[in-house]
Request: fold
Amino acid sequence: MKEQEEKGKIWRRYVDGLYSTKDVKKLSEQLREPGISNLLTELMDEVWEETSISQPDDPARREEYKKEARRLLKRIKPRQQMAWRRFIRVAASLAAVVCLAWGGWEVWDTYSRSTINYVEISTSYGEQRDIRLPDGSQLVLNACSHLRYPEQFDGDERLVTLEGEAYFHVYPDADQPFLVETPHFNVRVLGTCFDVKSYTSDRLASVDVENGKVQVDLPDAMMRLTADERVLINTVSGEYAKQREEADVAVWRRGCLRFNRTPLADVARELERRYNCRIVFADTVGYDNLITGQHDNQTLEAVLRSIKFTSGIHYRAEGDTIVLYK
Reply:
């Protein structure tokens, strides 16, 4: 008896919207018990009784309700009153059952989702990390990036969330597609090697395919890429362009930098992430230069000299900050 009372208290707290994570776990376990329907029926009756006897606290409003009730009773015949009462009772009972059933499903769904444990990995300036996912897929996480994935891949897809850049080598599984979710687009694959770059601070995002096929889902479009193809996405204007480029994918894994008509602001952010420095512009406008070139394991000074030579943008050091100016 005491155990039943305790169960009833927990369900009552849930109906009133006052429950803890511990309560949710208990409720999800109770839903599997054979006698739970009797308990829910008793709770339904209790809620109904409380609702039917509840009165407004304000005396004036209570008197108003009584007058209104008397007026309504005069218009309804006794037999109609009984039918109406039975109708209300049945409707309320059905509503309570539906609410409790729906609430029970929500408890189970909430508990199921809350029991999924996620792994979150971040990299700092100048840092790269090799990661092995639960399905055997491997990736390299570039600097200043964040990756989130479940400890185990369940369901119809293998979903990971990326903010930043990573090179993926995905284990093939046609029954459970691999999905990379980024702030600007999603990438869906079955098994391939590719690079995804999607920093929230950059104007340009990209997907480069080394082998296999990938599908890129944009807010208003979808495209498929094969080996040696890439898509560049302007996160400001929403424009995108598909290109064919027979070049090494993710050269940053070897300490290299590659720019292909990259906005100077994005180049500055890339240098900050790579060399753990701070770069600012002397003026707020007028830096619309597009930078092209590859730098293999060069120092920051060497890269800045190359940018100066090709674009005419000068630089100077002010403490720990690099200032770019014309």
In short: Residues 88 and 102 are 21 Å apart (CA to CA). The first strand starts at residue 118 and ends at 122. Residues 78-114 form the longest helix (37 residues).
